[in-house]
Amino acid sequence: MDEHNLLLFTDSYKITHHLQYPPNTTKVYSYFESRGGRFPSTIFFGLQYFLKKWLCGQVVTEEKIRQAKEILKLHFGADHFNEEGWRYILEKHDGHLPIRVRAVPEGTLVPVKNALFTVENTDPKVSWITNYLETLFVEVWYPMTVATNSFYMKTTLGSYLKDTAETLDGLDYKLHDFGFRGVSSHETAGVGGMAHLVMFRGTDTLAGIVVARNYYGAEMAGFSIPAAEHSTVTSWGREGEIDAFRNMLTQFPEGSVAVVSDSYNIWEACEEMWGEKLKDQVVKRGETGSCLVVRPDSGDPARTVIGVLNILGQKFGVTQNSKGYKELPPYIRIIQGDGISYETFEPILQELRCSTWSIKNIAFGSGGGLLQRMNRDTQKCAMKCSFAEVDGKV
After folding, report:
1. Are 119 and 101 a contacting pair, CB within 8 Å?
2. Which ranges of the chain would DSSP assign to H, the alpha helix?
3. Statement: residue 342 has pLDDT above 90
4. What is the pLDDT of residue 2?
5. Judging by beta carbons within 10 Å of its beta carbon (0-12, 13-18, 19+), is residue 303 exposed, middle or buried?
6. Which range among 108-117, 219-228, 292-301 shows the weakest confidence by mean pLDDT?
């Protein structure tokens, strides 16, 4: 059985809808919108992926018709399949779908309760095809919602960065995608990871850059740096943690490198290891424009971030920018990647600002909160028929 059979990419009840439209229905015209939800506007994105992957070219074949007829007869216990209609598309249109899709440009910020794209049949004999495809078209809710969520997180980050730093430099890298392992499927990671990259440039979700390359022509949509995980640190043993840290600095003598530092004791790691025993090596790397990114990965996020910054500030020194906020030397930064979502990260930003730490010092990583913790109702997405022509009448 072909898992990519478009004839089966629909809800079961739509199989019988060709029998339910009035006789001589020649046109069905439908629109897709966000009816409201968490955010007042949406970033429209992702339709091109679905068009190119599933709907372009010869998508109806004799074998797909045969398979669909067989499985649907078993499914319903009766023969409700529109074999005649699909065979007409195969013979008349060589298996290409006779539909027209019109959409706002992808990447556009659109207030809710506006049509984002429309679908209509172009052959009067297959008016049923428009809403047969609703199930697939509505899946655009996912990349659109991810892009929208990332847009509003970027807007918030930009506001705090503007308040606490002299420039917006680095904003595109302030929210890193850690979501690959936290989503329900590889396709979800690809589509959602790509959608995040509409707003940011940092990602560890390789599936997203592959999808962006294949369906949007983006040679390289996202970037990353060498980074440690707990296994690459704890395998050295507790007494060897400093050797694991030193190894990261040695293996990657130039460029940015991120090191998870809470395997045993985040405060000790920052104060004694990074701030004393390895300080000279960290500073030396900075002479080439390189940067160590310290990653705490447990504890109360706001308390931990402020505590780590305070220790690193004591050990490496701080400067006060023109807006009165503290900045670490450019060769050391932190990234908070534990428990980050739209709902949770602003309290951390508030604490940083209240503690007179510039947002320039920190980046965030987000996983499930970035790519998984949302659904179609987050932005109340729906596709509905708004026009039909029957017997030449609207």
Report:
1. yes
2. 47-50, 62-76, 83-93, 129-132, 134-138, 141-164, 186-196, 206-216, 230-234, 241-251, 266-268, 279-286, 301-316, 342-354, 368-371
3. yes
4. 80
5. exposed
6. 292-301
